[in-house]
Specification:
Low-confidence stretches: 212-221
Strand content: 5-15%
Structural class: alpha/beta
Oligomer: single chain
Distance between the termini: 56 Å
Radius of gyration: 19 Å
Number of helices: 11
Largest sheet: 6 strands, mixed
CATH class: Alpha Beta
Helix content: 40-55%
Number of domains: 1
CATH architecture: 3-Layer(aba) Sandwich
Mean pLDDT: 88
Shape: globular
């Protein structure tokens, strides 16, 4: 290989990011049995770094032939600005991802709602994704949640709601028969995703939400951001704190719990 040659984002996943991203992606698929031969997976692209990386990984996975699967790349436009819509299209083209874009009016629907608009928006977006994926013959939708999302959810549930729960690697849909949600970036660290983005000179959407565009929502006050910063502080003093938080959802001693909700 010519050492002076600049690697593409796809090629870098087989070299510099082989262990930190590619192998962790495969491990999540294998450990949690996220896909099997014959599956048709809809990779859902929001335009951010996580979902765009997920699309590149599935494109690579499809080409390796490790699994006999069908893959479609779906972009739901919930009311993006023209600039953000064009940025998603540009990045998809740059990364050789053939994405299908469909539209909805979710941003307009939730914009005037004062209580929990983000929660409602997320629920509505997922419903649209399930429906459009199912209409295209898919039995699974793949989302770009990563390792940090998982451990932040564990702490959020404990500290904010008094529950012991986590973000699951796969879920059966309750409203769309035969459909399943999977999270193949489950074991991939966000810092490695950012490193892959930056090393390849890529620029993705940070947040295309209509609330942030109009300053109606202050991200600095979000509980998830508070938890993220808390973990960063803990990491300075406690070795492997991130891995320990994750392991706490697996190594549960039932005999040492006051009660269990079934």
């Amino acid at each position: 290989m010519d050492m002076n040659k600049t690697l593409s984002p796809q090629e870098s996943l087989m070299t510099e990011f082989y262990e930190s991203i590619w192998l962790r992606f495969l491990k999540a698929i294998e450990d949690y049995k996220l896909i099997k031969n014959g599956d048709n997976v809809a990779v859902c692209i929001s335009g951010g770094k996580d979902s765009m990386l997920l699309a590149v990984l599935f494109d690579k996975l499809k080409k390796t032939g490790l699994y006999d699967i069908g893959v479609k790349y779906l972009v739901m436009d919930p009311g993006y600005s023209k600039q953000n819509r064009e940025k998603i299209e540009y990045n998809a083209n740059k990364l050789s991802i053939t994405a299908e874009i469909f539209e909805s009016e979710i941003f307009e629907s939730v914009f005037t709602i004062e209580k929990s608009p983000c929660y409602l928006c997320a629920r509505m977006r997922r419903g649209y994704l399930y429906k459009n994926a199912q209409d295209r013959g898919c039995n699974k939708i793949a989302l770009g949640h990563h390792f940090d999302d998982v451990i932040e959810t564990i702490l959020l549930s404990c500290l904010m709601s008094g529950q012991t729960r986590t973000m699951m690697p796969k879920l059966q849909s309750e409203n769309f028969a035969g459909m399943q949600l999977i999270r193949p970036l489950y074991l991939v660290n966000e810092r490695d995703i950012k490193l892959w983005r930056d090393k390849n000179g890529l620029e993705f959407l940070a947040c295309a939400c209509k609330f942030t565009e109009n300053a109606a929502h202050d991200e600095s006050t979000s509980k998830r951001l508070e938890i993220k910063r808390l973990i960063e502080r803990l990491e300075k003093d406690i070795p492997n704190v991130r891995e320990n938080i994750f392991a706490s959802s697996e190594n549960i001693d039932i005999e040492k719990l006051l009660s269990i909700k079934e």
